[in-house]
Amino acid sequence: MPLTTEQKYWRKRVFLLTWLAYAGFYFCRKNLSVTWSSMEADLGLDNSDYASIIFVYSLIYTIGQFVNGYLSDKFGPRIIVSTGLFLAAIANIFLGLSFSVGIIIFLISLNGYGQSTGWSGLIKNMTPWYRSNERGIVMSWWSTCYVTGGFLATVFATYTAFDMDFMSELGWKRGFFFPSMVLVVIAFLYLLFTRNNPQEVNLSSILEDKYQTDSDDNQDNIKILKILIKNNALWIYSSCYFILKLTRYAFLFWLPIYLEKALNYDVNDSGYISSVYELIGFFGVILAGYSSDKLFKSKRFSTVALMMLGLAAVCLLHGTLVSFGKMGVISSIALIGIATYGPDSLICTAGAMDVGGKKGAGMAAGIINGTGSIGQMFSGFIVVAVNEAYGWDNLFNFFVILSLVGGGLAALKWNYKSPEKYIS
Fold first, then answer.
1. pLDDT value of residue 422
2. What residues in the chain have per-residue pLDDT under 50?
3. 173-188 pLDDT tens trace
4. Distance CA 152, CA 34 (A)
């Protein structure tokens, strides 16, 4: 059925606001990795403290993913995500005032919970506005929110913490204060101008309701959850995402530090060069979306398998590319970004929406992202352990093995296409 002018307007409006909201979360997520070296020296901390902080953040973030996926399905994403945006901003304001590991861990926990409302809630927000056969492409463009957000947040944090003349006496603390201000503005925009679904603005449903029940909402959610956990596609997506998120967060949190300590770049170069990971990763997201919808006819696993195998190949070649100097390093980081962000975005957007449908998208996204966040949770300790035992170079070989495992798992479902016949 063709969409009305009002439906088209609201789809674009929800797309823009949800995109902006998730990009905004990164302004209060990426600043820690950029400022850590300065915090470490100023506060007398070390890499073990950093790994512990990342672990606690990731633990709370992981728990929050499972909880907030359910809450977004039950109460609607607008209120859940808005709460998370404000909580993350407030926590980051006080992170700029912190002076001990204990206080940092407490505040990073608040930030982690606030951040955990974002993905499942915003996927839930997008699901009622877009049909299954268009989600691969639409959500690939939407997924640029966290690639672009990560890039802009890295550059912004680097500039405000180290290069800005204004309030220079605060040093790295500015890398928390100013990103927080950006997120507060975005939080108000999201709260005031988005809506959960077409019915809230008196529009007819864009999706067909194929799943009907006479039970109350709580019983409905429980039935949907039971259907979801029996779907083995959900668990293969989750396993691949565990690997991808472990890998992605290792690069997000440790790439600037690797560039400083292994390749001896200064703090400014490390911050800006590491941003290439997200900047060029943008193209991997778009490539994955078009590939899954146009080339593989919405069969997401085919694209996931190929790109994860590509990630293994690029990580294997990293040492060779580094030998060509700074341009080789940038090229390697760019290719790793493409091969990481492509399957990552496809699994946790269109994949989650396909498996969960309109009624269960929040829970599906929460389960997939929550499982992935377990990998994120341990990524810091893995980086420290491998680096201390075998050196930075062998860390990339570790990612080769992980990527091969993920690509093999995805290949098991090469021809799978979610029918959405139960919970759309």
1. 43
2. 209-216, 420-422, 424
3. 999 999 999 999 999 9
4. 12
Nearest to 32 by CA among 139, 136, 158, 135: 158
pLDDT tens readout for residues 76-113: 999 999 999 999 999 999 998 877 888 999 999 999 99
Tell me the CA distances in angstroms from 62 to 57, 241, 376, 415, one per residue in order.
Answer: 9, 13, 8, 30
SS3 for 163-227, per residue? HCCCCHHHHHHHHHHHHHHHHHHHHHHHHHHCCCCHHHHCCCCCCCCCCCCCCCHHHHHHHHHHH
For residue 218, the model assigns a pLDDT of 54
Q: Are 376 and 216 in contact (CB under 8 A)?
A: no
Task: Return d(Cα 401, Cα 206) in angstroms, integer.
Answer: 43
Q: Which residue has the tokens 């396909």?
A: 354
Q: Report the half-sphere exposure of 395 (CA within 13 A, side-chain side).
A: 22
Question: CB–CB of 276/337 below 8 Å?
Answer: yes
Say what the pLDDT of residue 212 is: 39
| Angle at CA of residue 333, ends 327 and 336, nearest 5° | 140
Q: Residue 217's pLDDT is what? A: 52
What would the two tokens of residue 386 be?
């491998």
Could you tell me how many residues make up the chain?
Answer: 424
Q: Which of 419, 368, 69 has its CA nearest to residue 210?
A: 419
- Structure-block tokens of residue 8: 């088209």
> For residues 274 and 154, what is the distance between their CA atoms, to the nearest angstrom?
8
Query: Of 96, 90, 92, 146, which is closest to residue 118 (Cα–Cα)?
Result: 146
CA end-to-end distance (rounded Å), the chain: 16
Alpha helix locations (H) across 76-194?
77-95, 101-116, 118-126, 135-142, 144-158, 174-193
State both tokens at 390: 């075998």
pLDDT value for 99: 75
* Residue of 331, 368, 334 lying closest to 348 (CA atoms): 368
User: Which contiguous run of DSSP H or E holds residue 397?
Assistant: helix 392-411
Largest CA distance in the chain: 65
Residue 400 CB coordination number (10 Å):
18
- The reported pLDDT for the residue numbered 118 is 94
Output the pLDDT for position 419: 57
Cβ atoms of 81 and 117 within 8 Å: the answer is yes
